[in-house]
UniProtKB/TrEMBL annotation:
Record-given protein name: Efflux RND transporter periplasmic adaptor subunit
Alphabetical list of Pfam families matching this protein: Beta-barrel_RND_2, BSH_CzcB, YknX_C
Gene Ontology molecular function, alphabetical: efflux transmembrane transporter activity
Domain of life: Bacteria
Amino acid sequence: MNYEARIMTPSAVPAPDDTDELYVTAEDRASGRRVWIILAVTAVLLVALWFFVHRNDVPAAKAGAVQQAATVTVVVPGRATIAGEINATGTLAARREEPVGSVGEGGQVAEVRVEAGDWVRKGQILAVIDRSVQIQQQASQAAQVQVAQADARLAQANLDRALKLVERGFISRADIDRLTATRDSALARVNVARATLGQLQAQAARLNIVAPSDGLVLERRVERGQVVGGGSGVLFRLARGGELEVQARLSETDLAALSPGVAASVTPVGSSKSFTGEVWQISPVIDPTTRQGTARVALAYSPELRPGGFASVVIRAGTVVAPKLPESAILSDNAGSYVYVVGRDNKVVRRPVKTGLVTGDGIAVVEGLNGTERVVLRAGGFLQPGETVKPQLNTAAKLPG
């Protein structure tokens, strides 16, 4: 039979080891490509991150290492009439307090005719002291006056008859002198009796406790049945004319800025109503412990003003025409107060200033500025003289006059 038989020799069949090498090599190549791809992506991300972090950096070689100018807010203060104010607290009291007590011999209180808060007139009876004994003493003395007057009339009649008889020679001149002396003594006893009666009446009148002047009764310390006398102390306290005051405690500096007649506004604690008064007295001495003095502000009477209470006081401390800046614009160091002014070349210049009146919305600058400068409003402590800035005008920060 004629046919061709193909016989595969062992050399023609791929060895199992060679086939494994082919498969391993393909996997390694795929893994290597993945590594390169990951490295490339990582490099791109790192470059992008570096640019993101340094996006605001100015290259050092560009413009010779020139820094970007900082933006600052400036204000042109101008000039205005500034009313100074001094804020303080104080105690309400009577401007002229009048203590009233018993000035007579005293005795038992029979009647009290006023209460705290009442208005009284000068000479008005505040309390009545029992005077039954004094009434009897006055009656007795009045009788003594009548007796003395009768004796005086009798002495005068005897003298008149003697004068008619002396012309006829029945009475000597010596008798006339004696009768005249008797008449004069009788008249003197009448005067003494009358004076004693007047003394008793005055003593009885002093038993009544009366108001020394027109005013407001602040306090009553006596009741009916109480025994009072010269040593009983104060029975009533009056505010003469109803005038009140607030005694404001101020520092030496504030006191130096005041003078009598300066207007003030007083608001009692717990009340929203303010009362207008004026400084009528400034303490001539300073407390060495607190370094404070007292400014006394006179007030007219009002039911809302209660002596002994506290009140806040705003005192007008005069006026000045000057630029006014907020506190944030004024800096200070060992050399004194200063501000930063931005010049025409946008460079910062330090300008020493002298401050004046302090108000609720700013401080007056009495020296160093004319009001037309561009003054750094805030953050001046972070600037340096000569530094170039980018000024931004804030018209809303311009203080009103």
